[in-house]
Every structure is written in C-alpha cells, then in structure tokens.
Amino acid sequence: xxxxxxxxxxxxxxxxxxxxxxxxxxxxxxxxxxxxxxxxxxxxxxxxxxxxxxxxxxxxxxxxxxxxxxxxxxxxxxxxxxxxxxxxxxxxxxxxxxxxxxxxxxxxxxxxxxxxxxxxxxxxxxxxxxxxxxxxxxxxxxxxxxxxxxxxxxxxxxxxxxxxxxxxxxxxxxxxxxxxxxxxxxxxxxxxxxxxxxxxxxxxxxxxxxxxxxxxxxxxxxxxxxxxxxxxxxxxxxxxxxxxxxxxxxxxxxxxxxxxxxxxxxxxxxxxxxxxxxxxxxxxxxxxxxxxxxxxxxxxxxxxxxxxxxxxxxxxxxxxxxxxxxxxxxxxxxxxxxxxxxxx
Length: 344
Fold this sequence. Notes:
Elements: H1 3-14, H2 18-25, H3 27-30, H4 35-43, E1 57-58, H5 69-72, E2 75-77, H6 81-90, E3 101-103, E4 119-126, E5 138-145, H7 153-167, E6 174-181, H8 188-210, E7 214-216, H9 219-222, E8 230-234, H10 246-253, E9 257-258, E10 267-273, E11 278-284, H11 289-303, H12 306-315, H13 330-343
Parallel strand pairs: 1-2, 2-3, 3-4, 5-6, 5-8, 6-7, 8-9
Antiparallel strand pairs: 4-11, 10-11
C-alpha cells in the first residue's frame, strides 16, 4: 500500500465521525473570506456551488492558509488547471506529513515532485447504466459562457457533430441546452462585446450542427425535470477554470449519465457514495513519465523568466485590478492555457 493510499484510508475512517464532519462544516475555521476568493467563486457559479461529501470538496484558493490542510486532509481539490498551477506555484511542497490532496487524473503531470507522495486521484462515476440506442429520452447540454479557455469553438463544433451522430438513433429524444452567462472578468463595453461575440458564435454552431431541434431550458426549469434515460454534457474542454462541478453532481444525482467522459485508468482502492445514483472512485494513477517531464519542464521555464515572475508577484497588489474576477496575471493565464493544450 502506498503512502498516499494508507494516509487517505486512515483519514476516511476518521472523517466519518461526527466531530470531524462538524469541523469541515465550520467555515470560519478553514475558509478565507477574501474579496478575491469570493469574486472568483461567483465568477464560476453555478459550478462553484457547494455540495456535501466526506472527501471535503474545496477550491484551494478558499483555504485560509495552506496549513489548514494538515487538519482537514484529505481534501478534494475542485480547482481547474489555472488555480491548481497557481496553488503549486505558491506552495511548492506540503506543510506536513498528514496533508493529502485528491485531484483528477488529468492533472497528474502538473503535480510537483515534492507533492507526489501526498496526492491521490479521483473520478466521478454514474451508478446508472447509460441509455441504449433508441431509449434516450433527453440530451442536456450545459454551456458556460466565459471565453475560449472554457472551450474553443473548434472543440464545440467537433463534439456537437458527435452529439448529432448519437441523436440520429433517437428521433423522439428532447435536446435541451442551458447557458450560464458568467460575470465577465473584463469590465466595460470591451468585455461585454467579447463575451457576447463568443456566445453568438456558440449559438451559430449549435444550430448549424443540431438544426432547430434544441430547446432552451432555464436552471429553475431543470430542477423540475425528470432525468430518467438521459445524457448530459457540461462543456469544459481543458478543465481550465474548474474540474469538479456542482453542475455534474446535479445531473448525476438525479440519474442522468455523463456523455463522452474520459477513461482515466484509475487503480481504485476506495469508493465514496455521493447519492443513490453516483459516487467518487479514489485511487492511484500512473502518469506518463514523458508527459510529466515535458509539463514540469514548461513550468520550470515559465517561472525562470524574471519579468513573468515579477508580474505574478505584483498582480494581486495592483489596485487597478481590484474589480477583476481572476486570481492570476494575464501571462499566467496564457501559460496555463498552453499547459492545458499539452494535456489534451
């Protein structure tokens, strides 16, 4: 049994106790209530909505300090690539032997060497069999309108072609899409124009690929839907802004099945129920050593550039950025997107 496997198994036995559950529910104990953290959480709504799990799901920038992990571990990091890279930039090694993070396997190559023995991996799995051909009652598509770091138009177009092929066997299935139009990180008319143009292009792609079949449903309407014999797709190409979404838990918890989910090759040693219909699988993951070396080399090269290092150090202190929703500098975002493309 590996160090991380033994650690998390011991901790999972402990956190089933009432006092441990209450510790995590005491937000004042562990949560940083900073304006930047609050803005970023609102920026990601509804993906950042809270849900309960014994695996203690958090966005790492919500922590009051990294030392809190010594007490709270194991912690399931809901972060996307952007804020996970930001976390490891600021915390190059764990603060104690009891620290244990759970990450999606896709993020394994970005984990620094000092953290590798204290990270295990998770996947989210439906306990419901996907509808067979001819049985599908509804296909739900959830778009979050942020920018092309959420999903490129080429990616959306290619996946919608695959959706169309799936629907060819389902003439009676409803096709529903829901849109989260998040607060822009760019203020003023320029930011509004950028996001509106992105939304317009996505809308064109939807109707070009699926014709007049899609119908729009609001989030409130979704709450009263029956999800029996349904599939859903949360459009999230790079896991750039988040990797663990309330939206996925919402659909899975009501009996829908994720469409197009990746096979991750997890070596499972724990299963944690989330609802009657879905669960977490926790295990070890063998990352490709060539991929890890390439990604770690990219990270080292970026942080070796003095101008980028100075920009990242100064960014959070500039009052001109006080009204923005992002946590990192523009160059860091561009770098994170480059890493995300390598991980595809």
